[in-house]
Amino acid sequence: MIEKKEISVSTMMGKLRKSLHLPDKAYFFDTTLRDGEQTPGISFTHEEKLSIAQALDKLGIDIIEAGFPVISEGDFAACKDIAQLGLDSEVMGLARMKKLDIDKVIEADMDSIHVFIATSDLHMKEKLRMSKEEVIESIRENVSYANEHYDQVLFSAEDATRSDLDFLIQANQTAVDHGATRVNIPDTVGTISPHAFGYIVRKNYETLPKDIRIAVHCHNDFGLAVANTIAGFENGASEAQTTIMGLGERAGNASFEETAMSLYALYQVPMNINTRLIFPTAKLVESYCGGKIKIGRLQPLIGQNAFAHESGIHAHAMIKNARSYEPITPELIGIKRSDDVEQIVRSSIKLGKHSGGHALKAKLEDLGIYTTEDQFKNIFEHVKSFGDKGHEVSEEDFLAIVKDVMGELPKEEQFVILDELTVLTGSVTPTSTVRLKIRNNGDFASRTASSVGVGPVDASVKAIVKCFEPMNKIQLLDYNIDAVTGGTEALGHVSIELMDVETNNIVRSSATHEDIVMSSVLALLKGLNKIVKVKSV
Ligand code: MN
């Protein structure tokens, strides 16, 4: 149902709509876990991937591209586990035109398959070293094979926008003739304008059978990913391949938030999306990006300024009717705002020391986060202790805490536990003493070490590494700290990358605490636990 009273857009849109061949329904294909995970600097943990899949399902995403199972064991495990979640969303796996790749998707027991091969002269010559005839033969062979196992087969001609149009259509038609039920037209390298992209989509739409759903996959190299996606919809496409926050290779993919809300508010195309979960889902994914990618202040719809008003004239008009200077209500995408329009209060969830378990449970469910009983208890305690110190727990704080707890190994799998930490800092040489409990064959042994450092964090990290050193030589590769919200009371979020020097195994971990020395220490211990866990299996 489209909430017209929450939307006020150009009257020209209504006039234009009638002359366009818009689809009866817009389908959303989310590739946050595949293309989004290929964002330089971003890597989600297994638990984060599952949590994202659950949130996407709640959001109403039609198809989740859960990964590329052939590329790594981690991707395979995530694909398999997401397929097992019993989501309403269709869980799809990516495969090159290779039997090995297709078999991996089948082995991961995924709902449907996405197969691709490049069709541009550049890619065929330089990457594939295949002739046009060989590419067509490969499509025949592999799409047929995929179709033996799957009812739904999506075919993508990679680099479609730099391909010869006749050859692109021939490749798509071949795929359809051999069992592809959907065709995706990707602008893999973001090299086209909306008008030209619309032309390519239309030519395909006019040629391919009408029951073949056409998807579009656009990259943002010129800032045109969403515009190109929309141009696709004006010309016969009905499926948008997008990512949350526009994550993706290079400058990213078409942002889900902008694409979905444009189609919803400007074009009023029906869809399965629960728009009220758009903002919470983006914040959830942002929290999993470990501070490396953040929602920009000016980002459309979900940025901090998207519904903020500074000018007195605007604010005055806003009090009379918020639609005067806003195209949609922030509530429509799940941003709650206080009555004071000049001061936008982002959805503060009012969790604190007085919150009951029910409020917490409801909040988690709202966000599509499913916890074990232990995780729930930990989150509850963490929120309460933060609240006990007189803080109101904001959405950001809350998500940081949840992420923190979800990333923790269960107690029985922890090898290193912090027993005591003393830090001396100020106008002295910063000194830290730690006592750790380290498991050895089922029993815990205490180890104590002290170190000085350039600051309290440095001293503490060195003391811990000293405690741990007799068993494992560790190298800290990367250390990042940022405040979850603003102000001196903010939670400090620390994310680190550690390497086990003996095996070259690299692990990432993060932790959140109101004391930055503690966030650093907890992140380090989590990382050490991961290193020991990998070694012990
Ligand atoms: Mn892509």
Summarize this structure as a short list of keywords or feature phrases.
537 residues; alpha/beta; TIM Barrel; Double Stranded RNA Binding Domain; 3 domains; 8-stranded parallel β-barrel; 3-stranded antiparallel sheet; globular; binds manganese (II) ion
Helix fraction, binned, reads: 25-40%
What is the CATH homologous superfamily assignment of the largest domain?
Aldolase class I
| Number of contiguous helices | 17
Estimate what percentage of residues fall within beta strands.
15-25%
Low-confidence stretches: 338-350
For the termini, the CA-CA separation is 51 Å
Query: What's the structural domain tally?
Result: 3
Averaged pLDDT: 88
Side-by-side strand order of the widest sheet: 1-2-3-4-5-6-7-8
Bound molecules: manganese (II) ion
Assigned CATH architecture of the largest domain: Alpha-Beta Barrel
| CATH T-level topology of the largest domain | TIM Barrel
